[in-house]
Design goal:
The complex is a heterodimer. Chain A is of the alpha+beta class. Chain A has 8 helices and 18 strands. The C terminus of chain A is likely disordered. Helices cover 75% and strands 0% of the residues of chain B. The N terminus of chain B is likely disordered. The chains are: A alpha+beta, B mainly alpha.
Chain lengths: 353, 530
């Protein structure tokens, strides 16, 4: 039984030429943390709000544990929601914010249960404080505790970590993930941060311009991107056009091995860390280093090769400098993208917002 | 890396239709307001064609129109001549004790027009203040100049408050850049400052015009022939009700003009600060030798608008101490409060759903509801009250001269005042709070009651207070709709003053002024918060 199934969900806003959410379908399996990843304006938050019931889809269905919920108001869906700015009730203490949700619990048990939830999210000695007296990280935990207080079947989180500063964000993310796993909770995380999506989610959907481009585990979408957009939105990527013949394609970088096997004109993605640079000696496949970026654990180079710029990550032990000639070599097969419109997708949609 | 774009993008409005119970309040207001007005039209057109023609085409109607326009224009002009320099002195110059001057500029609001008329009338005549103290007998002020003085001295704070806020909010770099482009002080005033003040002036003028068109106490006491005075004499004396209905309709049409005009004028105006960064505070102009004339100007206004009414009240009260009258003053106070308190509570109960509808479910429907509220505010009280009288006499006899009908008329008349504070409070309570409560299992009404309503407390209290104090001193509606024998403070002052019984009127007028000072305090506090 799926925890959530979204089928062909579409939502148009008045005055917009394209639907904000366009025939989106996906499923969330029991115990899973699912991610909706995409640039701002791609429709991920609208998708989440339609699952919660704050918006109604124009088309499509939403099933929670196989029950159709589109016609139900938010309060009858048993879905928790954590807002980007937390939306704590400013006139209630922390404890009362958490107790707010426990309508089914007998009054005398509510306070005890709320205090337990606050301990569970790692908050102590703040029960009687007002929300505006808490730090951002503490507010975020209260918001999660409050959402859990209603005992939801599914927890929806809309950019819950984006208002935290970087140092706090990593730690909070790890703790929240551990908590969700420990409690066996199903959750959907909306984020524009690819690193967050890759590390936090069991599976994720990459959205662009209202559509889902790919659904898979973090490893799948990273290593086997299906479209140029996915390849470039999740980390960096070098895109090549080529002529495929089975497991080999001829490209401007010579013959590359590819996967899966294909025939005819193809668009290929090669990750920067899958390119090896060696010292040039005047042979073929050589380019000139134009920029070098030291990043501690590794180095990023931009290499000019036949009028285009190629990005490569190398280990810190290698050291080349701008002006040097280097030889480029792929150490993993390039991934065949399924973009129908080939090179048109070379510029990913940062501006689709 | 924060997602600034998506954070700044407003979430699309919920496209679900508002729940039906939110529509009850605006629908009720529409019905309660429009049915009597329709009935007023019916009543006016009942006579035969020849009578109608003689009523509508009377030369007197033109005279009334001329007088009404003359008075409205005169008060608008005179209030501006007082308020504009006063606001400029307070905000832009180093005039001494600017806070005290500001207070003096607002305090006259606690002296309603008919009390101001009472004070002016107290000066002259054989038994007036000048005769009693100095032995000088001068004619009582009356007619155009009397009405103009009474209404100007009461109304100028409305313009003052608006202009003062606009002046204080003006970006100094606008003036500085005009100076750097070669404009002198005068050029800056005409090219930059006055155009910038235009919206504030217009809305101040609108309030003044609505008040003057609707006023009845001051013009009746001064016996100046405008529409509302004619309605009053027709209704109370000649008793030609068809003609009274016609006069009410004409006045009503006149009152809608400024409402429509203001929308036009303001829709195209943009006066927001366009630059980024924090506005610098204004540099005050040093008055130097001009300080003396400025202080004389302020002293003259204070003497007229505050010294005169307070002095006259003190004079009459000292002439005959009111101790014997206190019991009846208390009764009149309770009568006023007995209508004003339920009116304030009902007004706010109606205002909350209308404001909520406007903020959370913006649509042509909710805009119409809001506009209706403003029409209710602009309706001349005499027209509204007369429509209610005709309507209740013919269709709802038990309601005629009943307290509920008086309260209903107050709700329609004062709803606009109650909506302001509630709407600004609502705008500060984010929609997400309700959504959070919904996702935690609450249906819409409890979600609102437990998350947003607590945050509206201050706005609701401000609205209740505002409507209560204004209803306490209301005259024309109480005069026509109050049950027989139900004498409010305002009716007591009016009926005694119109018989030249100033000594007898003084204790009631003093009670109104003291109580209305509360209103001024409330207004200043509320203004400080925004």
């Amino acid at each position: 039984m799926h925890v959530l199934e979204v089928r062909d969900m579409t939502r148009r806003f008045a005055g917009m030429t394209h639907p904000a959410v366009d025939s989106v379908s996906f499923r969330v399996e029991p115990g899973e943390i699912f991610g909706l990843l995409g640039p701002s304006g791609c429709g991920k938050t609208t998708t989440l709000r339609m699952i919660a019931g704050f918006e109604s889809p124009d088309n499509g269905t939403v099933l929670i544990r196989e029950r159709e919920v589109v016609s139900l108001p938010p309060e009858r869906r048993n879905v928790g929601f954590v807002f980007q700015d937390y939306a704590l009730f400013p006139h209630l203490s922390v404890l009362r914010n958490v107790m707010f949700a426990m309508r089914g619990t007998p009054a005398r048990l509510r306070e005890k249960r709320a205090a337990e939830l606050l301990r569970m999210v790692g908050l102590t000695r703040v029960d009687q404080r007002m929300p505006d007296e808490l730090s951002g990280g503490q507010q975020q935990r209260v918001a999660i505790a409050r959402a859990l207080g209603a005992d939801p079947q599914l927890l929806l989180m809309d950019e819950p970590f984006s208002n935290l500063d970087v140092a706090l964000r990593d730690a909070t993310r790890r703790e929240v993930r551990a908590l969700l796993k420990e409690q066996g909770l199903n959750a959907i995380l909306v984020t524009h941060d690819q690193e967050e999506a890759l590390s936090f989610c069991d599976r994720l959907a990459v959205m662009n311009a209202g559509k889902i481009e790919q659904v898979g585990t973090p490893e799948e979408v990273y290593h086997h991107p299906r479209t140029a957009f996915v390849a470039q939105f999740l980390g960096r990527s070098n895109l090549f056009e080529g002529e495929a013949d089975g497991e080999i394609a001829r490209t401007s970088m010579g013959a590359l091995s590819i996967r899966p096997a294909a025939h005819g004109r193809v668009l290929l993605s090669l990750r920067p860390e899958h390119i090896v640079l060696t010292k040039g000696c005047g042979g073929e496949l050589e380019g000139e280093v134009v920029a070098r970026e030291f990043r501690g654990h590794d180095l990023t180079y931009r290499v000019r090769y036949e009028d285009r710029s190629i990005i490569a990550h190398t280990e810190y032990t290698h050291s080349f400098y701008p002006g040097q000639r280097v030889r480029l070599m792929a150490r993993e097969p390039a991934v065949v993208l399924r973009d129908m419109n080939g090179s048109a997708a070379l510029v990913p949609g940062e501006a689709h917002g | 890396m924060t997602d600034a774009l998506s954070a700044a993008r407003p979430l699309p409005a919920e496209h679900d239709r508002p729940p039906w119970y939110l529509l009850v309040a605006p629908a009720a207001v529409a019905v309660v307001m429009l049915v009597p007005l329709v009935y007023l039209v019916v009543r006016a057109t009942e006579a035969d064609a020849a009578t109608l023609a003689s009523l509508v085409l009377r030369r007197r109607n033109l005279e009334l129109l001329g007088n009404t326009l003359l008075l409205t224009g005169g008060v608008v002009g005179a209030t501006t001549l007082i308020a504009l320099p006063l606001a400029w002195l307070v905000v832009r110059t180093d005039v001494p004790a600017a806070r005290v001057v500001t207070f003096l500029g607002v305090l006259p609001l606690s002296v309603p027009g008919y009390v101001m008329a009472f004070a002016l009338l107290s000066l002259g005549g054989n038994h007036g203040f000048l005769a009693g103290v100095f032995g000088i007998v001068v004619a009582r002020p009356s007619g155009y100049w009397g009405a103009l003085a009474a209404l100007t001295l009461y109304c100028f704070p409305y313009v003052f408050l608006n202009v003062r806020a606009a002046l204080a909010g003006m970006d100094p770099s606008l003036e500085e850049s005009a100076r750097s482009m070669g404009y002198g002080h005068g050029g800056v005033l005409y090219r930059v400052i006055l155009p910038h003040l235009a919206p504030a002036l217009f809305s101040g003028w609108l309030i003044v015009a609505i008040y003057v068109l609707g006023d009845f106490g001051a013009i009746a006491l001064m016996r100046y022939e405008v529409f509302s005075y004619a309605i009053y004499t027709q209704y109370s004396g000649a008793f030609d009700r068809t003609y009274a209905a016609w006069l009410s309709l004409m006045l009503l049409a006149l009152a809608m003009v400024p409402v429509l005009l203001e929308g036009r004028l303001l829709r195209s105006a943009k006066y927001a600060r366009t630059g980024t960064g924090v506005a610098r505070s204004l540099r005050r102009i040093r008055l130097r030798a001009w300080k003396i004339p400025a202080l004389v100007f302020i002293a003259l206004i204070a003497a007229g608008a505050i010294g005169l009414p307070f002095g006259m009240l003190a004079y009459w009260l000292s002439l005959r101490p009111p101790w014997g009258e206190l019991g009846r003053v208390g009764q009149a106070f309770l009568a006023s409060a007995g209508a004003a308190a339920p009116a304030a509570i009902c007004t706010v109960l109606v205002a909350i759903p209308i404001a909520y509808l406007r903020v959370r479910h913006p649509s042509p429907l909710s805009r119409t509801a809001e506009r209706l509220v403003y029409v209710g505010y602009a309706l001349p009280p005499l027209s509204l009250a007369l429509a209610m009288v005709f309507f209740s006499l013919r269709l709802l006899r038990p309601l005629y001269q009943s307290l509920p009908l008086l309260i209903v008329a107050y709700v329609i008349s004062f709803l606009a005042l109650a909506i302001g504070p509630i709407r600004s409070a609502l705008l500060q309570a984010p929609r997400r709070l309700e959504e959070a409560a919904r996702s935690l299992g609450l249906s819409p009404l409890p979600a609102f009651a437990r998350t947003v309503l607590p945050l509206l407390r201050r706005g609701v209290l401000a609205s209740v207070g505002l409507v209560f104090v204004i209803a306490m001193k209301e005259l024309p509606i109480a005069f026509l709709l109050a049950p027989t024998g139900y004498v409010t403070l305002s009716v007591a002052v009016f009926s005694r003053t119109s018989e030249a019984m100033h000594v007898e009127a003084a204790p009631y007028a003093a009670a109104i002024v003291l109580f209305s000072s509360l209103f001024v305090g409330l207004l200043l506090r509320h203004e400080g918060k925004e």
